[in-house]
Write a structure and sequence with these properties.
mainly alpha; globular; about 85% helix; disordered N terminus; about 400 residues
Amino acid sequence: MSTITSNVKQQATGAKNSTLALLALAISAFGIGTTEFVIVGLLSTVAQDLKVTITLAGLLISGYALGVAIGAPIITAITSRIPRKTLLMLLMIVFVVGNSAAALSSSFAILIIARFFTAFSHGVFFSIGSTIAADLVPENKRASAIATMFTGLTVATVTGVPLGTFIGQMFGWRATFWGVAILGVIALISTAILVPSNLKKAKPASIKDQVKIITNLPLLLVFAITALGYGGTFVTFTFLGPILEEITGYQASAVSLILLVYGIAVAIGNTVGGKAADKNPIKALRWMFIIQAIILIIFTFTAPFKWVGTLTIMLMGLLAFMNVPGLQVYVVQLAEKYVPSAVDVASAMNIAAFNLGIAIGAFVGGIIVDTIGLIHTPWVGGVMVLGAALLTVISSKLEKARR
């Protein structure tokens, strides 16, 4: 009887420690999510202050995303021998330094360089953070654990982005970056206190294993699904601020409130997406992408009308991040199956794919804005997401054939 009681206590303690570790990861994700997406609400403010066009200011989003895409797989591989907790803390130091440099930027060029440097911490954090979260819980709760970590990212869209936008409009965009740097310090302290030191150590990935990843068709397919499915939303989301002001007719002061509504929907969608993907991630992803594409196409027609346009934005938010846990757990499953010694690197490459999608989405959106206009960004994004839905069907059939 005493043995059973002892085992129950150990399980309870383990569950509590896992929860606290996931909380620390979520706090870091909150800071990182805020710095990535807050620029959406500040795009017009930064463009006016630094005397650049809206399209050029959009490079602050695509440039950051490229920094993540380039840095995630390379730095994850290079740092594979560093203890994970130590690496998490080093990443938050890079994050604090990068945002401080952004706050001190005196020109658009310096601001882009600071954003690019900050992005290195982003990619590596989410790649190792996903595998850490998955290792902290039983196998049947992996997607939910990853969703818990990404809750920090979604909460950033609920509170961090609209609050950062409000601060930037009231006190200048540099004040927003100082605030984000302070968030980084809080995340650093949380990691030091709450994350255990005895995390499962990743096996160093050999060059041979890395080559296996980039030549493995199932993994390449899921990277393409991630880039198209996640990136499609950013054709519109990158220019959501200008759309709300110029097409829907909201005052600039109301943009932060709409972003708050959008963020609440994102948080709900992320939680639902994690639970939906626990059993069968690829099937869940297929339906998420189909519905997401439909909503984006509908927004093309509802954007000029305040009430129905705002409702559509809420639905966009609901679907925007719903696919994140499923995509990340799916790539971990495939990596464990095909390249088990390089799961962290495969995870990093998927984070790179997320941000390559953001970069492509922001770039395509800029071209659309300059050629046929803001109002056409939603349906173009919807077409990209439909491409992702098609690839999920191909991936599913490929895995069935291999089994």
